[in-house]
Amino acid sequence: MRILKTVHALERERSQWRGRVGFVPTMGYLHEGHLSLCRQARSESEVLVASIFVNPTQFGPHEDLSRYPRDLGHDLRLLEGLGMDAVFTPEPEEMYPPGFTTYVQPIGPLAEQGEGAVRPGHFRGVCTVVLKLFQLVRPDLAYFGQKDAQQVAVITRMVSDLNLSVQLRILPTIREADGLAMSSRNSYLDPTSRGAATILYQALEAGRRVFDTQLGGDPQTVIRAMADTIASEPLASLDYAEVRDAQSFLPLQSLHAPALLLIAANIGQTRLIDNFALHEDGRWDVGRTREGRAKGV
Q1: For FRET with 155, which of 145, 165, 192, 293 sits at 20 to 30 Å CA-CA?
Q2: Is 8 a residue of the active site?
């Protein structure tokens, strides 16, 4: 496995790759969600590449950039065990050298509502770094998790709008046995908070049950079900609960497929997000446990 720290090293290595290139961009501190993307990529690609880069431009001034969990040595051992061919691990100044001024700025509800409203500039940072990584790695296939549903939608739109020659593979959220979506930020949770954090999954389940019984009805009934569930947990405070169109990201005016149930909440000092997706065929995508079992379906 080649560990590449500079753009020059990556470009030199890229010139030697033959066959389909699968790419898994990450911010490190890898968990089973990341590893499931890597396994799928390995099965579909001749060359398997990952990046580990905590991207400073997608963090706000008062967010957790400085304390975001990092363990590069452990991550590299995991990736080597999966047969990774190369890992790109640049420093911030390698990706954003002095004088850097060009950013990708998505606009409209897709990027400015939901997480975009709570975290101004977040998706500008996401799109900028993902486009740079796509330009450097030049993958045939790129792998993302459904857990970050709005990020997936924003990147999908960027790929379409800018005519990028990469195919996106969006894979299900990987959950713990009790439903908690895997996230690097789960490492912030102490045992008590960890138990409380399952309330996000319970809130989505409550919203899904209401959705299924009130098709064509008012989305506010689903939102109230999610909000009431969060309110039942003393350690949780709701950031938002929403029902949105999966492509435009506009709020639904009536309950119909396709749709996204989205939730963000603070468990103590830790902010977590999660979602369920309803496809046009009426099938819910709620993710699966690390053992591979579907949850909540």
Answers
A1: 293
A2: no
